[in-house]
Each structure stands twice: as structure tokens, then as C-alpha cells.
DNA sequence: GCTAGGCGACGTACGGTGTACGTAAGACGT
DNA sequence: ACGTCTTACGTACACCGTACGTCGCCTAGC
């Protein structure tokens, strides 16, 4: 009471933790983009002096790594219960896309800054477990994990530059932005590009990969 | 001659062009990393005042976009002449990897900053042409391009965080860095992870995709 | 040959950034 | 009661991107 009237400052000892800092950073990133994130902004968001952050986070890079870890840790990697590794693998790759949908800006940090954390290990563990469930071991398992993750990660980036191409194409059908003489196929595919559904594109590639892996476990010999 | 003795300063009129600036930026990025790139550093590299750069590059962001475009424009997308779309598609995806090998740091800029340039259109054109050659049109062609590009781009990023996992595993077999109780498959795959060959991993996934697409064009009906 | 005009290189300056360092105020074992 | 340790904090500095004004050279028209 008397403490409360002593001033507008928070009287309760405000506990500053790495978690609170990371969380604030994630919120700011989603609100104003990655580039707008500064230590000062994070401090302001928490109502704290800038240098106080450095008692819990050694670096801005470390903070960003924390952000990446936060997002990855939020990936839904729990087995859905069905024993079907195909469905599980699909779910795992989709988890990436879901996270990208929830944290569109922070996902960029994940993709850029390679993380080294328990969260990443969890992801790898889950992937390898699924590979093992499908009957793959050793190098093959690692390669399958690599391929799936590459697709999961890459398809997030595609939204960026494929979107740019679409903008280009849509900038008027007859415009000189895309020279029909030099880029005939692009122009020919204009309608398909404009109508494209990112979700369907993603599922298409995922299907392609899963069935390809599926055929790998039980190779069907078939000539011509 | 007399001009030469007038001073150590370059007497020939130093022509500053956007190309020279971008090129210097690429070199600096490869030398000291992306984060170390500053306008001042670029200017120093060219023996020029900082603000002179802004006569040719409106922005630092624009400069980075130029860097990305430079790398993408350097991708070897010329048809190899063989009429085999499979080989051509492989070559196209590999071109990404080759560029990542040549410009490891600058490639990060490419992946991060979505580019809007003629170079990107060239890439899309080539991809769509290959898809058409394989017999795909419209939405399917776009989706195949999406999938291939996602893999091409994503496998570059994999090197980053998969490498981190390996570091973690290799940090002593019995160390507590990777808890065998929580991550049994990771530990079990330790040897495979340590021995893994990024190039082979890449080719594995590429093969998987190409053959999957191949089967798509001539679907073999086969039940059970 | 001379001059008007414009373009491009440059210097200065400002607001903002990450963070090294020193300080001080509370928590706590003795 | 008193050291000690943790931790929030303020100051200061080097560096960043870039807006703006200046000024010298290069060229066009006579």
C-alpha cells in the first residue's frame, strides 16, 4: 500500500529471467519484424534497463538463438499414437509449416541462425525414430531425415521468392516486367502461378517425398 | 607520368558503378561474413568515401539484394544439351549447391532476402521449361518447381543445423550433452551422423525427388 | 577557348545500435 | 551487525546507416 504510493515503479521485485526476455523478443519480432528488434526495445517492453538483459543473455546473437530455440521447442513433435510412420512423418513436417504460420517472422530467425539446443535434438530424435520405425537404419536413416528436413525448411523459404515472382507476373499481363520472348514458360504458367495455393504446393511435395520413401522400404522391381 | 608523381592517389578517374560496389560487397562478405559487412567497409575496400556509394545504391538493403542477385545470376542454368529432363533437373538443383560452395556466406543472403530480379525469373523459366519437357503443365508444373526449389534451398540450410547436431554428438561419446535416455536414436545413429557425407546426403534426396517425379509422369498402377 | 550547367564524389552530422565497465542496492549466511 | 554475492542499473564509447550540403570535374553550346 504505502509501497504502492511510493511511486509508479513496480514495487514487487521484478524477476528478470532468460525466458521472459526471450518471450518478449519473440513478441516484438512478430509485432515489428526481425530487423526492428533491438536490445533497447526488448528492455523497454519489459520495463527494464537495457544492461539488465545482459545478466541473463550474453549477447544479442544469444538472444536470437533463444528465439529460434523457443520456436523449435514449440513444434508439435509428439507421436499421434497411430503406428503409421507415414502419417507421423507427414505430421512432423507439417509441424514446421504450422509454426511458420504462427510465428512468421520468428521463423526467419530459425532458418537463418542454426541452433544448437535440446529442442533441435528432440526434433532429430523424433525424425530418426520415425526412420527406424519405417525400417531404415544408419546412413540411410540420416539421409532420409536430411531430405525431409531440407524440404520442411526449404518450403518455408519458397513462400518468399516464389511470392516475388508472382508479384512480378501479376503486375499486368501484358506488361514488360516479364518478357514473353525470354521467359515464355513463365508467361505461359502465369495463370497457374497466380492461382497457386501454397498449402496445396506444400502437400504435393510432401506427398511426393513420403511415397518415394515408402517405395524405398519395399522396392518394387519393375522393368519397363 | 607527371600525373603519376602528383601523388599516391589513383589518378585515373575511378569509375564507381553499381556492379563494382556489389562485387566488392560479395568479396567482403565471403572474407569476413555477412554481419561484418558495412557500407563503410565497402567504401574502404573500393578506396572511396562512404556516401559515394549512395549514388549507385539507394540502400544497404538494396545492396544486399544486389548481392543476392549476383549469386543467383551466377547459377549455371544453361541446358547441357542432352534432351534428358532428369539430368537437366539434377544439374539445375546441383547448381544451387555449387554456388553455395563457391559463395558460402553470400548464399545466406540469397536465402534470407527474397530477391526480385531478372535472375530469379531466369531460374523460374528454366525450371518451368524442364517441367514442361517432362510433360507437366499448369499447376502441377508449378508444384514440381516449388518442390525442387524447396529441396535445393533447404538442403543448403541443413548443413548448418545438422552440423550443429553432429558437433553435439561428437563432443564425447559418453558425455551428457546428448542424453541416451531421452535421445536413444540420436545416440544410436551417432556413428552414422559422424560419418555422414553431406554430398551423398544431398544426392540421395535429389535422387529420391527426381525418381518420384519420374514415376509421376508415367504412373505405374500397382496394387499391393 | 570560354562559360553554364549538371553529375557524381565527398565531408559533416545525427540518431540509433550493441555492449564494456563501474556502481550501488537488496538478499543472505554467519 | 556485518561482509559477500547477486543483479539491476547508468554512463560511455565505438560503430552503424544515411540525410543533406558542398564542390570540383566533365561536357554542351557558343
Describe this protein's structure.
Chains A, B: This is TetR/AcrR family transcriptional regulator C-terminal domain-containing protein. The structure is a homodimer of 224-residue chains. With 224 residues, the first copy, chain A, is mainly alpha-helical. The first copy, chain A, folds into 2 domains: 47 residues, Arc Repressor Mutant, subunit A; 153 residues, Tetracycline Repressor, domain 2 (Orthogonal Bundle), CATH 1.10.357. Chain A is 66% helix and 0% strand. Chain A contains 11 helices and no strands. In chain A, helix 2 crosses helix 3 and helix 2 packs across helix 4. The longest helix of chain A is centred in the C-terminal third of the chain and has 33 residues. Chain A is flat. The N terminus of chain A is likely disordered. The structure holds a DNA duplex (30 and 30 nucleotides).
Could you provide a short overview of the structure?
Two copies of one chain form a homodimer. By secondary structure, the first copy, chain A, is mainly α.
